[in-house]
């Protein structure tokens, strides 16, 4: 036994102090174990995360599919609502156009009835009074009374003609272009403006509902120019285009008011009329640089264009007190 012990020590294989069965690992093995422990923990955490993701990936996919389906349904409902809105707008514009056409036809009928009935009676009364007034045997006092009666009958006939013209301007029977030219000629003569008219595509046929509305808009626009623009030149463009009619009225006046003065109803009424016809109206103006009014109306009654919100009249009204001129004399009243 002693020989074995000596042999082991001599060869360098002696047991460490404390005995051969102490169980302590070598230093290199302890270092390797301390390095592997974080890697093992990281691998365990990664495995847990992968397992969690794998478990919940199906639920997430199902939720995404449900959200996509819900978005698809919402998109379909929105498209359906937009179609319904467009159909409602088209229906409202169609009804407004039909109402406007019916109203214009009724105005023409009333105007004819007034002219043929009441107008003829007034004319006959005027002739009778005139004949009585020219009777040489009439006393002077009675002659003066007949002169007053004849004068009032004459005023009544003028008022009646104004009413008939409001119901249906007789100038439109020769077409929109001719009516516009006569209107501008009257304005040039009575207000001293230099008026220019440019037309394109107008056929000279009797005006329909759209042309009638456009003529009324021209009257109102010229009324605003004469009353408030303090202009010396007004230029009017009337054109028949593929999509409808275009009216442009330009002047070299003072432009829009900027002093905060109260604003009238002229452009408000024009904006309402244009919107009811399914058209568009724009107003461009700068102080001391004139004003340009542009109006577009659809060509055919019952075929409205998409509705667009016109510029608020409160932002576009240049002056207060704009009134519709129904006869040329009204412009210089």
UniProtKB/TrEMBL annotation:
Query: A Gene Ontology CC term for this entry?
Result: membrane
Q: Which residues cross the membrane?
A: 35-54
The cofactors it requires, by name, are:
[4Fe-4S] cluster
- Annotated region (Disordered) at 303-333
Swiss-Prot/TrEMBL keywords = 4Fe-4S, Cytoplasm, Iron, Iron-sulfur, Kinase, Membrane, Metal-binding, Transferase, Transmembrane, Transmembrane helix, Two-component regulatory system
Single GO molecular-function term? phosphorelay sensor kinase activity
Q: Where in the cell is it found?
A: Cytoplasm
Q: What is its EC number?
A: 2.7.13.3
Q: What is its main location?
A: cytoplasm
Residues forming the Histidine kinase domain are 214-301
Cited SMART domains: HATPase_c
**What's its catalytic activity?**
ATP + protein L-histidine = ADP + protein N-phospho-L-histidine
**Stored PROSITE patterns:** HIS_KIN (PS50109)
Q: Which Pfam families match?
A: HATPase_c (PF02518), HisKA_3 (PF07730)
**Record's function text:** Member of the two-component regulatory system NreB/NreC involved in the control of dissimilatory nitrate/nitrite reduction in response to oxygen. NreB functions as a direct oxygen sensor histidine kinase which is autophosphorylated, in the absence of oxygen, probably at the conserved histidine residue, and transfers its phosphate group probably to a conserved aspartate residue of NreC. NreB/NreC activates the expression of the nitrate (narGHJI) and nitrite (nir) reductase operons, as well as the putative nitrate transporter gene narT.
Kindly provide the name given to this protein in its UniProt entry: Oxygen sensor histidine kinase NreB
The lineage, from the top, is:
Bacteria, Pseudomonadati, Pseudomonadota, Betaproteobacteria, Burkholderiales
């Amino acid at each position: 036994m002693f020989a074995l012990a000596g042999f082991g020590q001599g060869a360098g294989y002696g047991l460490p102090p404390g005995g051969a069965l102490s169980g302590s690992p070598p230093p290199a093995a302890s270092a390797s174990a301390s390095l592997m422990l974080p890697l093992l923990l990281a691998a365990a955490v990664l495995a847990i995360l992968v397992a969690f993701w794998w478990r919940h990936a199906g639920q997430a996919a199902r939720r995404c599919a449900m959200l996509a389906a819900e978005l698809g349904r919402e998109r379909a409902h929105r498209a359906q609502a937009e179609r319904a809105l467009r159909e409602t707008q088209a229906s409202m514009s169609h009804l407004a156009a039909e109402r406007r056409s019916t109203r214009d036809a009724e105005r023409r009928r009333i105007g004819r009835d007034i002219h043929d009935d009441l107008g003829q009676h007034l004319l006959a009364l005027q002739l009778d009074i005139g004949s009585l007034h020219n009777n040489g045997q009439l006393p002077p006092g009675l002659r003066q009374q007949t002169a007053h009666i004849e004068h009032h009958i004459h005023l009544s006939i003028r008022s009646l003609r104004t009413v008939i013209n409001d119901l249906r301007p007789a100038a439109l029977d020769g077409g929109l272009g001719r009516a516009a030219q006569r209107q501008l000629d009257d304005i040039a003569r009575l207000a001293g403006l230099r008026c220019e008219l440019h037309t394109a595509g107008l056929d000279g046929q009797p005006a329909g509902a759209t042309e009638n509305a456009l003529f009324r808009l021209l009257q109102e626009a010229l009324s605003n120019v004469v009353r408030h623009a303090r202009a010396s030149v007004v230029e009017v463009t009337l054109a028949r285009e593929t999509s409808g009619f275009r009216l442009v009225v330009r002047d070299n006046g003072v432009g829009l008011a900027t002093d905060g003065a109260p604003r009238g109803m002229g452009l408000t009424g024009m904006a309402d009329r244009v919107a009811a016809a399914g058209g568009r109206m724009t107003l461009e103006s700068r102080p001391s640089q004139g004003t340009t009014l542009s109006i577009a109306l659809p060509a055919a009654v019952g075929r409205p264009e998409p509705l667009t919100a016109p510029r608020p009249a409160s932002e576009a009204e240049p002056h207060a007190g704009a009134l519709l001129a129904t006869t040329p004399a009204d412009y210089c009243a």
